[in-house]
Automatic annotation (TrEMBL):
It comes from Acidocella aquatica. Belongs to the PrpD family. InterPro entries: MmgE/PrpD_sf, MmgE/PrpD_sf_1, MmgE/PrpD_sf_2, MmgE_PrpD, MmgE_PrpD_C, MmgE_PrpD_N. This is 2-methylcitrate dehydratase. The lineage of its organism: Bacteria, Pseudomonadati, Pseudomonadota, Alphaproteobacteria, Acetobacterales. Residues 286-471 form the MmgE/PrpD C-terminal domain. SUPFAM superfamilies: 2-methylcitrate dehydratase PrpD.
């Protein structure tokens, strides 16, 4: 890996494109380096993971709405939509929209956290949609997905968006565009323009994850994917983009990120170096914000030492800056303490999540968020006894780039009314690569079978699992086998719109 300095230059300085971050990203995308076997295996795992959560959410309202819009853009020989028969095909940017929303809706797929946040599995829907439309092979798809993960993870390691209240799809969209460029075997100068287009159109604010969180949290990465497909299409037709998009005097860095004096150092593979960033990412065992994964596991462990939850006086969670200020009491969001809050808000309230996990000893993507469950009087009482506090050491471990030390957990103090105290801590979730029970292929398959049970047939489940595990051998035009279809008549229809 090489660290690449990125800063703002005045307009009077002509910055060569070879010195621009977008050009260097494009160079990584255009590099035809082979994908290693372990990375290939992990890509297959994440395609399974995405299908799991997409099918589990397939008839939830935001997903139904996204699918309805996509079905208004039918295209012969286009891309498939999760849940629909393989014969139903739409324009790829709209398949990216529908499938991206399905994948993101439950907040239950993979994550990478460093200087900023990300769900790099969001790269898969647009790259797959283009691959199906352009009749690419399984190996082409693998190469494209490896690039998408690499670019997003590298940007997330170096450039913080959230401190400037910019949503994390600003790193996702250029990664998706780069991944599509790799998939299609585009030249570096074409990918360069696509990356710049993608950056330019994808900067949005973090209000989508603040206050009363709406369904846009699910739509946002899908919107990025749609924009990425459109960006690549435009530049393939000969169009350019604002340049230099990162370093210009009126660029995103100058006005939306660190400002004209900011300096970033972005790690990128050197020519011929394998794209391995996916191996630094991790999926979720529980359907909740990633910073809650270790705390859910910790709650399960601590409850074994608690005879009476009603005897609890107070719970203090000592954790990182992010956990405290984004999903903890440091956010100062009254909605995070409201039993009538939306599911999207509850899965961003560590106070709610810890209380329910402590009481129930299990976590379910539906029942743990049900309005009746959230409104239980004893849960509300316990929930409101919980507060978070930033601990500098947990913040340091959160931000370190040393994967062996990186942590997303907390130390929890449970104070009882009789003056006694129970203290425990957990650095990483059980399913994390460094956790007690790291996720492997069997766990991804089990997650798929559990989440799709009763939604798709056993025959369809087996067919998909066989096809996806044979991904490197799928020929051009065979990627429709990666779609997962519900039985006829089981897909809900959306309300009418314009399309």
């Amino acid at each position: 890996m090489k660290l690449n300095e990125v800063r703002v230059y005045p307009s009077k300085v002509t910055l060569k494109r070879e010195d621009q971050l977008a050009w260097k990203i494009a160079g990584v995308a255009a590099d035809k380096v082979a994908v290693t076997k372990d990375v290939t295996d992990m890509i297959i795992n994440r395609i399974i993971d995405n299908a799991s959560v997409a099918i589990a959410s397939v008839n939830r309202r935001p997903v139904v709405s996204a699918r309805g819009g996509a079905l208004g853009h039918a295209r012969k020989g286009g891309a498939q939509i999760f849940g629909a028969p393989a014969r139903v095909t739409v324009s790829p940017e709209w398949a990216a929209w529908a499938n991206g929303t399905a994948v993101r809706e439950l907040d239950y797929h993979d994550t990478f956290l460093a200087a900023d946040y990300s769900h790099p599995g969001d790269n898969i829907p647009p790259i797959l949609a283009v691959a199906q439309t352009m009749e690419k092979s399984g190996r082409d798809l693998i190469r494209g997905i490896a690039t998408g993960y690499e670019i997003q993870v590298d940007l997330v390691k170096a450039i913080c968006l959230h401190e400037h209240k910019i949503d994390h799809i600003a790193h996702l969209c250029p990664a998706q565009a780069a991944g599509i460029g790799t998939l299609l075997g585009l030249k570096q100068d074409v990918i360069y323009q696509a990356v710049q287009q993608a950056v330019h159109v994808s900067f949005t604010t973090r209000q989508s994850r603040k206050g009363e969180i709406s369904s846009w949290k699910a739509f946002a990465p899908a919107h990025a994917g749609k924009l990425a497909v459109e960006a690549v299409d435009r530049v393939m037709r000969g169009e350019g983009a604002p340049s230099p998009i990162y370093e210009g005097e009126d660029s995103v860095i100058a006005w939306l990120l660190g400002g004209k004096d900011a300096v970033y150092h972005v790690p990128l593979p050197i020519p011929g170096e394998a794209k391995r960033a996916i191996m630094d990412t991790y999926t979720k065992e529980h359907s909740a914000e990633y910073q809650s994964q270790a705390l859910i596991d910790l709650a399960f462990r601590m409850r074994d030492s608690i005879e009476n939850v009603d005897a609890i006086e107070k719970i203090i969670i000592h954790t990182s800056h992010h956990t405290h200020y984004v999903i903890g009491t440091g956010a100062n969001d009254p909605q995070k303490m409201d039993p009538k809050a939306s599911r999207e808000t509850l899965d961003h309230s560590i106070m709610y999540i810890f209380a329910v996990a402590l009481q129930d000893g299990f976590w379910n993507h539906e029942t743990s968020y049900a309005p009746k469950r959230a409104g239980r009087a004893d849960t509300v009482r316990l929930w409101h006894k919980i507060e978070t506090v930033e601990d500098p050491e947990w913040t340091r471990r959160y931000h370190t780039l040393d994967i062996a030390e990186k942590a997303f957990g907390a130390r929890v103090e449970i104070l009882f009314k009789d003056g006694s105290k129970l203290v425990d801590e957990m650095a990483v979730a059980n399913a994390h690569p460094l956790g007690a029970k790291p996720f492997g292929r069997a766990d991804y398959i089990n997650k798929f079978q559990q989440l799709t049970n009763g939604i798709i047939t056993t025959r369809e489940s087996n067919r998909f699992l066989e096809a996806v595990q044979n991904l490197p051998k799928l020929s051009a035009g065979e990627l429709s086998s990666l779609n997962v279809a519900l039985p006829a008549g089981e897909l809900l229809d959306s309300k009418p719109g314009i399309f």
